[in-house]
Design brief:
Chain lengths: ~290, ~280
């Protein structure tokens, strides 16, 4: 290989690196330039004082407050659904499942992790129609359906991060308690899970980030542009990512558009924050970050 | 206690796996009226023209394929360069910085990319090419490239870093420089990660909704050039969802969903076989 070729290759690599940095800097810079001026309490609460809004004494019409509450509600609910099932399945995969069963289950979870989020949204929508027809006419796309669908979306990440956190424990750690006479369950509860908490926790944080940012699922399962702060599980609701999507095509004036920029910055900050928390709790965060489909 | 816990854990795992099957079942049942009599393949090939009673999803299928392939075409060389820079050529600190940036990029919401796309990239494309609305295959695939590059880069870097240090030292001892290390030792030893990364990123590109929905224009047509508008399968689902539940339009989105589901399953099978093939070789 000639000197010249090598040089070209290295220069090409540097150009690629700089192009990527420039692209991401342009995206962030543009967003901050357009929207930073609008990020203040007024963007969130409109004309109503923050205290009144937080205590739900008055409705916020011209601010992001209902959307933020909606996102918070949908994230809390879906992670609440996904954590118990996900961690239990992860423990089963790491400690109990063997051979063919483990292979089949792992295959299912891989498929689930790969299903595009819009398809999961479509599933949630179909589920809502099904429940509406066969169980209760009161069920239609709502906060509840969205949370269930988002829970399905993040379930594989929680399962896999729990499983890998447990499987990556050193063999000695695994044997100590058993050598002292502990049962398998005692070993899991008192040694293995506490030892792998940071891995499990970072998986959960990434799942939260995924729930907060996903738009395709909630687009199909009950997020709307104007709903106010949700009062029950079975109503439609507002959410930050949906608001951004809605504003991008339906904005009526400059003020609405700039609140779209503001909302983007807030969402970006939330996701970045969650990401940093996750990467601080565990360095090997790459795997989970990659497998978000 | 031991027994009960084990049963609960088993039940959770089975429920989780069952959901995977349940999603498929729901798509199948709701799409059934259109699928009966082997019409599914017909649907894939038919054009979309509701006035003539044709609800084929061929334009959307091709839209998805074009946009994701073009996105890959942009992202692949870029990611190769970046990952080689991170793991081989860049000074340690700059490489570390670049890696952090790329990791952070995986956390950026797609809706934010779409939003910036509409107000920054779309006008740019419109100005540069002097035609149309700027919402086209090219715009969407450029933004898509930004979305999938982190996946590719992190996979490549992971593969490059796994090549044993001693191999590289051997090259260095023979007088090889970094570029020669990369071409002759690192690349041939990192095929597994490179291929898995490509498959996974392609799956992400096809499964992404928001970017195509927001900036590809969503016209139902087979795009004739990269400057024409197109609609993807995912965007089609998002756009048609609000229509009448008994209409054939509505049922066609389940055909889209089914196609996407089967496609993503195929990707998983592909990744697993890549793992199996290379795993055997390594032994």
């Amino acid at each position: 290989m000639s000197r010249w070729m090598e040089r070209t290759m290295i220069v090409f690599c540097w150009i690629c690196g700089l192009v990527l940095l420039a692209a991401i800097a342009t995206i962030f810079g543009y967003l901050l330039y357009q929207g930073l001026g609008t990020v203040n309490l007024r963007l969130i609460f409109g004309n109503i004082s923050a205290v009144d809004a937080l205590l739900l004494r008055k409705h916020v019409f011209a601010g992001l407050f209902p959307a933020m509450v909606g996102t918070l509600a949908v994230v809390t609910l879906s992670v609440g659904f996904a954590i118990p099932v996900g961690i239990a399945s992860g423990v089963y995969m790491a400690e109990y499942a063997r051979g063919g069963v483990k292979w089949v289950l792992g295959f299912c979870f891989d498929i689930l992790a790969g299903v595009p989020s819009i398809v999961i949204g479509l599933f949630g929508f179909a589920l809502a129609i099904f429940l509406h027809r066969h169980f209760s006419a009161g069920i239609y796309p709502s906060l509840f359906i969205s949370s269930l669908s988002l829970a399905v979306l993040v379930l594989p990440y929680i399962i896999r991060s729990t499983q890998f956190a447990l499987e990556n424990l050193p063999a000695e750690t695994r044997l100590i308690a058993v050598a002292l006479g502990a049962t398998k369950l005692q070993n899991i509860v008192y040694v293995l899970i506490p030892k792998s908490l940071s891995g499990i926790f970072s998986g959960v944080i990434l799942a939260i980030g995924r729930c907060a940012e996903d738009t395709a699922v909630i687009l199909l399962t009950g997020a709307v542009a104007f709903a106010g702060v949700p009062k029950s599980l079975f109503v439609q609701y507002e959410a930050l990512p949906f608001y951004i999507y809605y504003i991008s095509s339906q904005y009526a004036n400059q003020q609405e558009l700039s609140s779209g920029y503001g909302a983007s910055i807030i969402l970006l900050l939330i996701c970045a924050l969650l990401f940093f928390v996750a990467s601080m709790t565990q360095k090997g965060v790459t795997y989970q970050a990659l497998y978000r489909a | 206690m031991e027994k009960i816990t084990e049963r609960i854990l088993t039940a959770s795992a089975l429920i989780s796996a069952f959901i995977t099957v349940l999603i498929f079942a729901f798509l199948l049942i709701f799409g059934l009226p259109l699928l009966q009599g082997g019409q599914w393949f017909g649907l894939l090939a038919q054009p979309w023209s509701p006035r003539e009673g044709l609800y084929g999803i061929r334009p959307m299928l091709l839209g998805t394929v074009y946009i994701s392939l073009l996105g890959m075409a942009f992202a692949l060389p870029l990611s190769f360069g970046c990952s080689a820079l991170i793991s081989v050529f860049a000074p340690r600190r700059f490489g570390g910085f670049l890696r952090k940036v790329v990791q952070l990029m995986t956390g950026v919401p797609t809706v934010v990319y779409g939003f910036v796309g509409i107000f920054l990239l779309v006008p740019m494309v419109r100005e540069i090419f002097q035609g149309g609305s700027g919402m086209c295959v090219l715009t969407a695939s450029l933004m898509l490239a930004v979305l999938i590059s982190p996946t590719l880069i992190l996979f490549f870097v992971d593969g490059f870093d796994r090549v044993p240090r001693s191999y590289l030292n051997a090259v260095a001892a023979l007088g090889g420089n970094e570029a020669q290390q990369f071409i002759f030792v690192i690349l041939p030893n990192a095929w597994k990660s490179v291929l898995s990364g490509i498959v996974l990123a392609f799956g992400r590109a096809m499964g992404d909704t928001l970017i195509a929905l927001m900036i590809a224009g969503n016209a139902v047509q087979v795009p004739g050039s990269v400057l024409e508008s197109a609609r993807t399968l995912t965007a089609h689902i998002a756009l048609v969802i609000a229509s009448d539940y008994d209409s054939p339009e509505f049922k066609s989105i389940f055909a889209c969903g089914l196609t996407l589901y089967l496609f993503s399953t195929m990707m998983v099978v592909l990744i697993r076989s890549i793992g199996a093939i290379f795993g055997r070789k390594e032994k």
